[in-house]
Specification:
CATH architecture of the largest domain: 3-Layer(aba) Sandwich
Number of strands: 14
Largest sheet: 6 strands, parallel
Distance between the termini: 71 Å
Helix content: 40-55%
Structural class: alpha/beta
CATH superfamily of the largest domain: Response regulator
Strand order of the largest sheet: 2-1-3-5-7-13
CATH class of the largest domain: Alpha Beta
CATH topology of the largest domain: Rossmann fold
Strand content: 15-25%
Length: about 350
């Protein structure tokens, strides 16, 4: 009864057990009774299952590790963006009946790792990894390559382009946001939340800002350099920028939390939003909707990003020799009350 591309889910359905049990049984791991182990192996043999290190590839995923960045003094669930991404991952894994294992990876203010989680250090801890929101540096890459663990970067980046990734169109989204401001008559537009060593997505948003200004015939840039996770630093940098350049009539924030903090700094200086001053953000997280006034922003399908990441990981396990792919989520503008035409 051989079939093409037999999966763990197929074997689980025929055996009357979960995909996780199938994975344990086929890898001769503890936690499965002898009778169940034998039954699973017999079913796998009847179906023509070939392990992923055999002559033919098959989807051999039961336990997926999710490594999510942990910013300084912040729990992962407190991050409004990644909580939605993880929700998308969980939904896709429930549908596929995959087990999820979680690990936190401490990062610095620019999302570069400062400590490795045990999940990366333990051989055969997972069948595949999703790295969420952090930069995969050479140290982490060496551990992953040593274990030959399939990995997908989810709003995450690496020094090389050898990994599958699901990311936002940061350049295009920023270009659209700044073009929107320019088309509403703003010619003095600032950017808040970037510096030379910022996370790659933030640098791409800065690049989109610069290109949009150039495309609109605007040659003057105003940049408030600060880390995007420090609200006090954001407010101070914004206030300094606006005090030195009172001609600025609009700001584009590197993300929504930056934009909301910048808007608060502008209001503290006596600028009324949107009557005297306009602000646009990026991501469309909860704080964008609850801000006063509600924030115009670029919406990113965060749940879809998580779902897609699981599908890309399945594809990588199923076709391990295929070229790396980058899947891009294109954001769309959500107009609220923080922008007024000049």
């Amino acid at each position: 009864m051989a079939r093409n591309r037999v999966t763990l889910s197929t074997i689980a359905e025929e055996s009357g057990v979960s995909p996780a049990t199938v994975s344990l049984a086929l890898r001769d791991k503890p936690g499965v009774g002898a009778e169940t182990r034998e039954r699973v192996r017999e079913v796998a043999k009847e179906l023509g299952y070939i392990p992923k290190n055999g002559a033919q590839s098959s989807v051999d995923l039961a336990n997926i590790g999710v490594i999510i960045k942990a910013e300084p003094d912040q729990m992962p669930q407190a991050n409004q963006f990644y909580s939605y991404v993880v929700a998308g991952i969980e939904a896709a894994c429930r549908q596929q009946q995959f087990n999820l294992l979680y690990a936190r990876m401490p990062v610095d203010q620019d999302s570069y790792p400062v400590e490795l989680p045990r999940m990366l250090l333990e051989q055969d801890a997972t069948d595949g990894l999703l790295l969420v929101g952090a930069f995969l540096d050479d140290t982490i890459a060496r551990f992953i390559e040593r274990q030959s663990t399939p990995i997908v970067l989810v709003d995450a980046y690496a020094a090389s382009d050898m990994y599958d990734a699901v990311v936002s169109d940061n350049f295009g989204g920023a270009h659209q946001a700044v073009t929107y401001l320019a088309q509403r008559g703003h010619r003095q537009i600032g950017f808040v939340g970037c510096h030379p060593h910022a996370y790659p997505s933030i640098r791409e948003r800065k690049r989109g800002y610069s290109q949009a200004l150039a495309d609109q015939g605007i040659d003057q840039e105003y940049v408030a350099r600060c880390h995007i996770v420090d609200q006090e630093e954001i407010a101070e940098a914004t206030a300094e920028l606006l005090q030195e350049n009172p001609q600025i009539t609009a700001l584009f924030g590197a993300n929504d939390e930056v934009a909301v903090a910048a808007m608060g700094a502008a209001q503290a200086l006596g600028l009324s939003v949107p009557d005297e001053f306009s602000v646009v953000g990026f991501d469309n997280v909860n704080s964008a909707q609850t801000a006063t006034p509600a924030l115009t922003t670029m919406h990113v399908d965060k749940i879809g990003m998580g779902r897609l990441a699981v599908q890309v990981l399945i594809n990588r396990v199923e076709y391990p020799e295929s070229n790396p792919v980058t899947t891009t989520i294109h954001p769309n503008l959500v107009e609220r009350q923080s922008v007024r035409r000049q």
